[in-house]
Amino acid sequence: MQKFVPAQAHRTDDRLKPGAYSPSNKTQNLMHPRATQLWLTLFLLALLPLAVHAASVPAPTRKFMQQHCFECHDADTQKGKLRLDNLALDFAAPAAADTWGRIFVQLERHEMPPKKKPQPNDDERQAVLDWLGRELRVAIAARQSAEGRVALRRLNRFEYQNTMRDLLGIEVNLMELLPEDGSAHGFDKVSSALTLSPVQVEKYLEAADVALDAATGVGPAPKYFKEHIATTTLC
């Protein structure tokens, strides 16, 4: 009687034959039409984020830059040694992110476009600021996620009080104007505990104004009066 051998066993035996997976066979497998199509698909998918990022500039922003930026910052002009028509959109690159950050500040302060040039309306400017601010925030968050936050080092309330006293020669209680400092391990000088919130920034600015007023003598105008002194004639 002939012994029955399942087809799966035949396939297993074929795979175990010497030379079944020789380098030449691997190359042939990779050159198979389906394999070629798979590798091409993976390659295009790898390039897709780059293409999407390059095309991520909104049309209003692109039009804004063409109308208000490229005239002075193109390949031929480059005022201030700044060229924008080919500026990389890779916000993860420190150099490009720094340039886009300076552009954001100048647009927000209405320093650009120059006053002698045609000005965009508020909606057009704000649309560019919204897009640019969003891109910069995403890049900053990604960098912080990958590299971690850098510990912020600042003066605590007591140090700020003493510094302003020594710098300006004033005796003003600035500590009462400032929020309480955080502490770590029982110390209020540890950088990881000395956070800086928007409220704290505002309070520090208010304290600086008080210190400067005290140093420059700014305050209510002094009252003045006139007094006539009678004179007598001596003989």
Outline of this structure?
The chain is mainly alpha-helical and 235 residues long. Helices cover 51% and strands 0% of the residues.
Topology:
Elements: H1 7-15, H2 23-30, H3 33-54, H4 59-68, H5 94-108, H6 122-147, H7 157-168, H8 198-216
Helix pairs in contact: 5-6
* Mean of residue pLDDT values: 75
Structural class: mainly alpha
- How many runs of DSSP E, i.e. beta strands? 0
Provide a count of the helices. Answer: 8
Poorly predicted ranges: 1-31, 43-55
Overall form: flat
Could you estimate the helical fraction of the residues in percent? 40-55%
What's the order of the H and E elements? HHHHHHHH
Largest sheet: none
Proportion of residues in β-strands = under 5%
First-last Cα distance: 165 Å
- Based on CA atoms alone, the radius of gyration comes out at 35 Å
Give a verbal description of the structure:
The chain is mainly α and 235 residues long. Among the domains are: 59-147, no CATH class; 157-216, no CATH class. It is 51% helix and 0% strand. Residues 1-31 and 43-55 have low confidence and may be disordered.
